[in-house]
Specification:
Helix content is 24%, strand content 0%. By secondary structure, it is an all-alpha fold. Residues 1-27 and 33-38 have low confidence and may be disordered.
């Protein structure tokens, strides 16, 4: 039967231009009647999960609030349907579940069998093995055959570590880091090192750390959960005076020269291991010593940390005699006797006579004399520093 629309009814057509006759599967007469009485018998499975004003029942998320959901809304569009959720995931906000454990827990959603059992396997919820009844696989050969389940890399390739994640249960992984993993025999490889009672305060810190069962903070004694080395490492009992001015891994505070850089010095470090600036070079040595603030070595002037008596104790005045010392460079003197002194303009007064190569073996002796540059001993040829007359006077071979 052909039905003719009246003009007023035609005005309603723009409101439904998004819906075609195929979508609602109605003949002309029924289509017009829908506008008059609003009685189209819609199903969510034949349309979509949205709101459309031409229907009396709805499939959108607000239909439950307005009590106008279509009869199949719960199966096809509700969050209680596995069809619109991810199979394999547990979601505590819903009373029914779509994960692989729902059957044993007897809380599967109504469409779980139809929506999840044939194509939504996850390795985390089953096992890292081959199962002929499943479309995707979790065994070591799945990459070769190109049929790995979606979570294979994360759950079965052995890449999870407690250190990189957390000491908690995470269903997306096969191995676990929570305190029940030992009982369930599914602990990750680094569980003992990262999350168990084997923590040591010396290797971590004297703080509370949720990644560990035993603690190293000041409240652990109150709660009875101190790590074994808490007393030694964190109870503040180490003193440099009672131990030594060294680094000791069994303690949290240190007494070595680097402790100030790492901000972990024991309380008495300065008084015991770092002497005050009243050091004298004469009473100690002309060397660098980390236990003092001022220094007596040759670099102290560069770093502006010389002790007060550095010049008098460690740096001799210019009256040095090369003949009485040696023909070498010596940082404790102002003038020098080495071969470079002329270039630097700091030669001692007797450098020319004592060290400038005027020595003769005939006028001295056939031996080594550090006050001269050239030598007359039997090793001078090896060192290439023989005096000119060495062969004629001393080499009798």
């Amino acid at each position: 039967m052909k039905f003719t629309l009246f003009a007023p009814m035609a005005l309603l057509l723009p409101a439904v231009t998004a819906l075609t006759a195929t979508e609602i599967k109605l003949n002309d007469a029924e289509f017009v009647r829908a506008f008059v009485v609003g009685s189209i018998e819609r199903t969510c499975s034949e349309t979509d999960c949205g709101y459309h004003s031409v229907y009396s029942c709805q499939c959108d998320e607000k239909c439950e609030s307005y009590s106008n959901c279509c009869s199949d809304y719960g199966e096809f569009c509700s969050a209680t349907s596995c069809r619109v959720r991810d199979c394999g995931d547990y979601d505590p906000q819903y009373y029914c579940q779509c994960d692989d454990a729902c059957q044993s827990n007897k809380n599967c959603c109504a469409d779980y069998e139809a929506s999840c059992t044939t194509h939504k396997r996850t390795c985390a919820r089953t096992a890292c093995d081959y199962r002929s009844t499943e479309a995707c696989q979790c065994d070591e050969n799945c990459e070769t055959y190109g049929n790995c389940c979606e979570d294979y890399e994360k759950s079965c390739s052995g890449q999870r570590t407690c250190a990189a994640t957390s000491c908690d249960y995470d269903p997306s992984y096969k191995c676990q880091c929570d305190d029940k993993c030992a009982f369930n025999d599914n602990c990750c490889e680094d569980y003992d090192q990262t999350c168990s009672d084997q923590r040591t305060c010396a290797d971590t810190s004297c703080d509370y750390d949720t990644n560990y069962k035993c603690q190293c903070d000041e409240n652990c004694e109150t709660y009875g959960n101190c790590c074994e080395d808490y007393e030694k490492a964190c109870a503040g009992k180490r003193t440099c005076a009672a131990t030594s001015c060294d680094y000791d891994t069994s303690y949290s505070c240190q007494c070595d020269e680097n402790c100030e850089n790492y901000e972990n010095c024991c309380e008495d470090y300065r008084s015991v291991c770092q002497h005050s600036g009243d050091r004298t070079c004469a009473d100690t040595s002309c060397d660098y010593d980390t236990t003092y603030d001022c220094q007596c070595d040759e670099n102290c002037e560069t770093y502006a940390n010389c002790c007060e008596d550095y010049k008098s104790a460690c740096q001799h005045s210019g009256d040095r005699k090369c003949a009485n010392t040696s023909c070498d460079y010596d940082t404790t003197y102002d003038c020098q006797c080495d071969e470079n002194c002329n270039a630097y303009g700091n030669c001692c007064d007797d450098y020319e006579s004592a060290c400038a190569g005027k020595r003769t073996c005939a006028s001295t002796a056939c031996d080594y004399d550090p006050s001269f540059n050239c030598q007359c001993d039997d090793e001078c040829e090896d060192h290439e520093n023989c005096c000119d007359d060495y062969k004629s006077v001393c080499d009798h071979e």
